Amino acid sequence: MSNDVAYPVFRTSDLGLALSMASRLMEFDRREDSRVTAYAELCSVAEVQRVARELPQGQYAGDFDYREVGGVPREQWPLLVAGLAGRDLPTDPAVYEGRLPVTCELDDLPIGRIEDVFAAAIGPSRGWINWELLCWPDAPELGFLGERKHAEVSLLFNTRTRELDEPADDHTVLLHVRSVCIDGRQVREPYAHWLAEQVGLTVIGPGELW
């Protein structure tokens, strides 16, 4: 079971505003070693090729059947299954038959390296940015100690779920805290509310295990 629960604290159809609010929350207690990861699912050849031009440094991988790779050395996997940098993706649309959606991932980078360009490139596709290794402060008036391991901020693009299986015409900022569930209740939810309030935000819905 997940150790994090993510609470929605802001939602808007304005992509720039969503990124600004997510960044405000992330900057509340970021550390020098904080990192960022971004992920998207691209459902057409045109979107794959467009995003690859804008994010050539991303790692792109196509859909596959596990029978294709079971017991097969990685160097013998089909081209798109093994994954390619955007600059190396094939231009022939036929190569993508049976491989959609293609995922794009930029993993474990310093904060500030890719957020703006990724948000500009996402277009209609679904995806997320996740800021990790933050450091939430103590809330002594509530009796909560701060967090490092589970302190994260996420921004969902064009979806309401981490699994990207619920399309939406807006974007959602999520605040993560450690999941402590007792009798079906997340006992650290008040801490999430407190953290959101420190930057002028409000928890606007139930948490999702992350």
Compute the number of strand runs: 11
| Class derived from helix and strand content | alpha+beta
Question: What strand order characterises the main sheet?
Answer: 4-3-5-2-6-7-8-1-11
| Uncertain spans | none
Helix content: 10-25%
Q: Please, what is the average pLDDT?
A: 94
Major sheet size, sense and barrel closure: 9 strands, antiparallel
* Proportion in β-strands: 25-35%
Q: What is the N-to-C order of secondary-structure elements (H for helix, E for strand)? A: EHEHEHEEHEEEEEHE
Number of helices, where a helix is a run of at least 4 consecutive DSSP H or I residues: 5
Shape field: elongated
Question: What is the radius of gyration computed over CA atoms, rounded to a whole number of angstroms?
Answer: 19 Å
Distance between the termini: 9 Å
Describe it for me?
With 210 residues, this protein is of the alpha+beta class. It contains five helices and eleven strands. It has a nine-stranded antiparallel β-sheet with strand order 4-3-5-2-6-7-8-1-11. The protein has a two-stranded antiparallel sheet with strand order 9-10. A hairpin with a 7-residue loop joins strand 7 and strand 8 (167-178).
